[in-house]
Amino acid sequence: MSATVNRAFWQDKIDVPSVIRESPVPSKVDDGEILIKVQAWGMNPVDGFLQHIALPFITYPLIPGEDIAGTVELVGAGAAASHQKFKAGDRVFGFATRAFQDYVVLDHAMVVKIPDAMTFAEAAVFPLCLATAAHALFAKDYLHLPFPQVSSSGGSSSSSPSAAKAVLIWGGASGVGSNAIQLAKAVGYHVLTTCSPRNFDYVRGLGADKVFDYHSATVVEDLVAEIDARVCAGIFQAAGPHGAVGPCCQVAHKSKQTLFVACANAAPEGAVPQGVQATFVYDTNPKGFYYDTCSVLFADFLPRALASGEYKVAPTPEVVPTRGVAGIQEALDIVKKGVSAKKIIVVAE
Q1: For the purposes of burial, counting CB atoms within 10 Å of the CB of 36, is it exposed (0-12), middle (13-18) or buried (19 or more)?
Q2: How far is 212 from 192, CA to CA, in rounded Å?
Q3: Cβ atoms within 10 A of the Cβ of 29, count?
Q4: Peptide bond between residue 148 and the one before it cis (omega within 30 degrees of 0)
Q5: Secondary structure letter of residue 268 according to DSSP
Q6: Would strands 278-280 and 261-263 be described as parallel, antiparallel, or unpaired?
Q7: What's the rounded Cα separation, in Å, for the pair 244 and 180?
Q8: What are the backbone dihedrals phi and psi of residue 34, each rounded to the nearest 5 degrees, phi first?
């Protein structure tokens, strides 16, 4: 490791310009940690949101960002002995906090090896979107679906009881929705999803079994009819504007079944009818955000599913022209305008 300077993208408080600051590159890591030289960063709506809205659980100044892909520089003994047996030079992606910097230290359980054919820009699509989808689907406080198992061929192995059940993913063309569709299919569920008609083929390509236009005046009734034709495991509002929680709750309210709604957005006042349980997807694990679900998926299923090609890069990465940490603000400005079926990426210099 020849570099000695680590550049980081700082947001000192809301509604002020971001600042790039330098610090020394970490020279050592703890037992279970990995130091990663970042080659690509993925942008998420929350990163731009935090530039203008102060959330009660966020402290400024901060280095935002969650999605990185890069090469391993240093490995703690515990990480080297882990299931993935990390070593210097490995190509990986990781789910981080304080991701917008040249070098990031991560717990090895939040890191995944990537195939040689996968670019860093493609790998940076995954972390937060995949982690959020996984927590909504698999965590015990949400839909609590079974985790996907790895078959002898390296792909997923779904159990037959899941195949008879449906799950509704609202906003399937989003980054979170794209991953939720693939994860639900990996455990054998019949996936219903919503998106704009221009993205119907895209979500079908990820495995969605039936797609509905969320602009339709009858979308709630149409979904209820489809859901009640079989057993439904629950609803995940993966994306959409602030008001997207409402239609999901209406589907749950009108269904003959008792359906839990996991929400990527906080439910606005009055959006949840009496008798419907709708919960914002969040985590307070001291080991790390979404640690319990990520550590299971990242250890075995995901590296093998990526290597076999069963798990697809989705949405498509779109790389901004400006490279390095200096390109992050440019990328965030694009995200703030809204994107669909793509992920904005910054690659390193």
Answers
A1: buried
A2: 8
A3: 19
A4: no
A5: P
A6: parallel
A7: 16
A8: -135, 140
Q: Residue 56 has what DSSP assignment?
A: T
- Do the beta carbons of residue 147 and residue 187 sit within 8 Å? yes
Kind plus residue range of the DSSP H or E element containing 80: helix 77-80
What does the block give as tokens for 314?
């989705």
Residues 155, 156, 161: CA angle, nearest 5 degrees: 155
For residue 160, the model assigns a pLDDT of 47
Q: What is the pTM of this model?
A: 0.94
Strand duo 5-10 + 19-24: pairing: antiparallel
**pLDDT, tens only, 279-316:** 999 998 989 999 999 999 999 999 999 999 999 999 99
Coil/strand/helix, residue 50: coil
**Cβ contact 194:214 at 8 Å:** yes
Contact 303, 84 (CB under 8 A): yes
Distance between CA 43 and CA 124 in Å, rounded? 9
Please classify residue 342 by burial: count the beta carbons closer than 10 Å to its beta carbon, then call 0-12 exposed, 13-18 middle and 19+ buried: middle
Q: How far is it, in rounded angstroms, from Cα 332 to Cα 43?
A: 7
Q: Which residues have C-beta within 8 Å of that of residue 27, sequence separation ≥ 6?
A: none
Strand partners, 106: 34
Tokens of residue 59, six digits: 């402290």
Rounded to a whole number of angstroms, the CA Rg of the chain reads: 20
Per-residue DSSP letter, 298: I
